[in-house]
Sequence to fold (334 residues):
Amino acid sequence: MPDFAQKLVLWQRRHGRHGLPWQGTRDPYRIWLSEVMLQQTQVAAVIPYYERFLARFPDFVALAGASEDEVLRLWSGLGYYARGRNLLRAAREVAKAGRFPDSYEEIHALPGVGPSTAAAIAAFAFGRRAAILDGNAKRVFARRFGVEGDKAQWALAQKLLPARAIETYTQALMDLGATVCTRTRPACERCPVAKDCVARREGRIDELPAARKRKPLPLKHATWLVLLYKGSVLLERRPGSGIWGGLWGFPGGPEKGVRDFCEKNLSCTVAKTRRMPVIEHGFTHFRLNIQPIRCNVGKILPPAEAPGRIWMDVEDAAHAAIPAPVRTLLLGLA
Fold:
């Protein structure tokens, strides 16, 4: 076993995380679910979603029989909703095959499973010797070895793989980056490889890994029409691709001429409108300023509903498959 791997394995057994809900199992369903949820999401945020998801869909067969709406409702608030849609697609593939694939290559071929996620599932569920390179591992490699760039780090990750204890080593890389070699204020005094660390020796802890040059995020604007009628609200399903794909939300519309717009496009007359406080929401690549306009509906015109559009009780709507800002706004109406 390489010296680096040996030190991490010993450290993980004594000081790593051992009580996470998805640990202590070889069940590929539970491991796959946790790894997908953990993509770009902190452990603390994932745990309640993971537990609720398992309670509703305890295995592949249960998940494969679900509707996309059910899955997205449980996913609502966790973000990156393509993960939820891909989860359902993958579950249906696995249920059809009758088994979860047990090789890295087959796991990687599942919808929504990237190379690092596939390696983690292969290691934890089947003991396969596969290298991960998530954000935590990248930071550890950059500081300990002074190596950056995906190509060089993938080569290093493969080289450092131990022949045994692969599950413990993989978890150690994740734990070290998440709890010790953190992005800011790393706890070097607790690091098992601190004495060999390039960044520490050269005084470059704050420089490695090098920060990406970030352009100012563009600002976009949207107007939401919050149409209320006798305790119900009108929701519209968003397109399957794009932000909040497949979720329910408020219809978009103009800031002016709302009444004419609603009568022509949303099959209702509006008796009164009122601007609500602007909502600011950040995404990976842009910021969104949303102007909600509360519309008190006087009468619903035929057809009352259209494909992809539904009137729903406000309380029920707050628990549907909706984005977090929509839920916050709905809860404020109660």
In short: The beta strands are 219-229, 232-237, 248-249, 268-275, 279-282, 287-300, 309-313. The first strand starts at residue 219 and ends at 229. The mean pLDDT is 95.
